[in-house]
Design a protein that fits this description.
Blueprint (H helix, E strand, L loop, with lengths): L1 E9 L5 E10 L4 E5 L6 H8 L6 E6 L2 E2 L8 E4 L11 H11 L5 H11 L12 H14 L4 E5 L7 H14 L5 E5 L3 H4 L5 E6 L2 E7 H7 L3 H8 L5 H10 L5
Parallel strand pairs: 3-8, 3-9, 6-7, 7-8
Antiparallel strand pairs: 1-2, 1-4, 4-5, 9-10
Length: about 240
Amino acid sequence: MIEIKDLEKTYAGGSRALDHIDLELHPGEIVGLFGPNGAGKTTLMKCIFGYLRYNGKITLDGDPVTRKNIARLSFGTCEHSFFPGITADDHALFYRDHFETFDERRFRVLMDFFGLPTDRKIRHMSAGQQNQFEVIMALCQGADYIFLDEPFAGNDIFNREDFYKVLLGMLGPGEMLMLSTHLIEEVSGLISRAVLLDKGKIIGDRQISELEEEGTSLVGCIKAAYSYRPDRVYEALDQLSPEGQ
């Protein structure tokens, strides 16, 4: 289990990105991390990996996240973490040498699924292909806890829908997956839990099974949590119309 207690992150200038976060992440969960731009989603993930300094406590099965256990975590980031000057096959060789749990079979199946060349330098792939490759490496590292930050950028809807199905069938019972994404409706059938962030605070943490029992959709739950006002669209249109000038 990953346990986060009283996590706080303040950037230079006093901007508070995370405001006393308490969160537990358990094996076998597929967690959707939702929130508007600037809510703190990427900052939260980076703190878990120790990429940012923070106040508070983050532990993995009771131990701090260090070089000794960080291989149990993997991160697919929209900022990219691959080596652009080498090929996919070279990446696989590097991962085999550094991660005993690297899943070669999963790597080959996913490369074939996305139709990605294994002998081409990553810098020569399209932006969408690079995003796909980033996700593949995060999923194949053999980590127990997988974090994906906006993993579907640049992918068409057909690729995404098929990939959701592959994910559901591929993940083992002990693997946890956290997705940070704005594609709420698309992932509603994939995730088992929704964590909602706003201005650095958790404003909602719901099991999808609970929402189904209540007859509430994930989109409806999120709109209510963020006090969504559909009338603001009409207000803006009224002000922009020629009659409103």
